[in-house]
Amino acid sequence: MSSKRRRIIAVAVFLTIFVFLSLSVTVSRSVKEVSTGFFAPLLSVMRSVGQKMEDIWDAAFHSNNIVREDRRKEREVLKLRTELLLAREKIGELRSVHSQLEELAKLGFEVLPARVIGRDPDTWYQTFLMDRGAKHGVGGGMPVVHGENLVGRIIELGGRWSRVRLILDPESAIPAVSDSGQAGGIVVGNGVGSLKMTYIERGAKIKVGDLVLTAHLGKVLDKDEAPLPQGLVIGRVVSVSPEEEGLYQSAELESAVRFRDLREVFVVVPK
Amino acid sequence: MKARNVLLILLGCVLLQVVLPNTVWLYEALRVQFVLIAVVLFSLQQDWFGAAMTGVGGGFIMDLFSGGRIGVYALSYGIVALLIGRIQERLFKENMLTIATVMAAASLLSSILVSNVLELYGIELHYLGQFARRVLPSAAANAIVGCAAFSMVRRIRRGVRAARKRYYW
Q1: Domain limits for position A256
Q2: pLDDT tens over chain B, length 169 residues
Q3: Distance, C-alpha A90 to centroid of its chain
Q4: Burial (CB count <10 Å: 0-12, 13-18, 19+), residue A208
Q5: Could you report the predicted ipTM of this complex, rounded to two decimals?
Q6: A42, A50, A125 ranked by CB distance to B67: nearest
Q7: B32 CB contacts (<8 Å, ≥6 apart)?
Q8: Within a domain: residue A248?
Q9: Is A205 helix (H, G, I), strand (E, B) or coil?
Q10: Residue A176, CA atoms < 13 Å, CB-side half-sphere
Q11: Does residue A48 form part of some domain?
């Protein structure tokens, strides 16, 4: 191939990339849906094998970690029991995973279990693939939970698979409210594993330890998205940074979900 | 190597990156970018055109499996591979330190390019946090694994060459 021809091809290829970059997200997603759909069954099989290997790996090398984790969980359970005793008056508000799910069902939602079959190939995006799709009744924008904790929302959909954007992703934005109901805002991911609640009114009362829950804003953010049920736990406030100037304050949150180790999740499907 | 085989290897690397469980990496930031390593290793063996096409191909496959827009990785890996293809003749490839440096530089450059493209779309990234927690550890991990992969490929090639010689004699 002549040098001139190669240059023309190279320029054409890079121009094509710019065309792809300027495509709308919807077009970009539909192209990806075809390719991911093609490889989804293979990913599922590979993930199963990977999971088996992971179990062997854990059993062989992480036994110390398991003991440490058990102790940590034991301490956490004790702490939670104490908190539960102290908060007996508010016991009605503290729901177990089961009652939370039952409540969701009463509100007109049902939950669908799903298995994680793949993660984003790089760490810039915080997404994962799961083995439930449109054929199982899953739709775009539906929330994905782990217990009562919000994990993310569905952004891409295939027949038997879908992609979930974690709440940690910098592109994620979830309408939220503190459990006291006095501070509302938007929870965004910062891309490095933590959550930030922004646009909290300057005078609103929010303090360290407050639970932050999903707020129902109807279909304001995106008319095609499924509604977000109210009251799913997003995280707990670990620090509040009031801005000296400006109208808003922000808060750092910590989620109870260990996103790194997610294997099974639940999709909240409106009935 | 034939273009089809190169694409198949790159696809295999992406699939491996997608399905490998997180617990394999001691720390999430130490996740190795197999595709980038493969792109750099192929680029070191080719001229600028072949390298750029390999980079664009590898990046495009990454784009298909990632949660973002199509073209982000194709552009950044394409540019990185093009640069490596341009300078590879001037490099002393027998030295492992050279390979480690190229691998780390490619990792850093691709991260800078990806983050800048994402910023253009209004995605707020915390540069300092990202670089300290993610980009630098990942570059170090890529350099180590890249050197090991390069050494393995070189040994296999030498073995194949020696076997061929024996066959002809």
Answers
A1: 97-271
A2: 788 899 999 999 998 888 876 666 666 667 889 999 999 999 998 899 999 999 999 999 999 888 888 889 999 999 999 999 999 888 887 788 999 999 999 999 999 998 888 888 877 777 677 777 788 888 999 999 999 999 998 888 888 888 888 887 7
A3: 28
A4: exposed
A5: 0.80
A6: A125
A7: B25, B138, B141, B142, B145
A8: yes
A9: coil
A10: 33
A11: yes
CA-based nearest distance A269→chain B, Å? 22
| Structural domains in chain B plus CATH codes | 3-168 (1.10.1760)
Mutate to test the interface with B, among A122, A164, A259 (most CBs of B within 10 A): A122
Residues B103, B138: Cα–Cα separation, whole Å: 11
Q: How far is CA A89 from CA A48, A180, A205, in A?
A: 45, 15, 22
The alpha-carbon gap from B45 to the nearest alpha carbon of chain A, in Å, equals 18
CB of A178 closer than 8 Å to CB of A237: yes
Task: Give chain A's domain count.
Answer: 3
> What residues of A are in contact with residue B115 (Cβ under 8 Å)?
124
Q: Are residues A140 and A43 in the same domain?
A: no
**B64 contacts A32? CB cut-off 8 A:** yes
Q: Are strands A184-189 and A173-178 parallel, antiparallel or unpaired?
A: antiparallel
Return residues 26-85 of A near B (CB < 8 Å): 28, 31-32, 35-36, 39, 42-43, 46-47, 50-51, 53-54, 57-58, 62
B29 at A interface, C-beta within 8 A: yes
- Helix (H/G/I), strand (E/B), else coil: B132: helix
Separation CA A172–CA A194 (nearest Å): 12
Residue B150 token pair:
């390069």
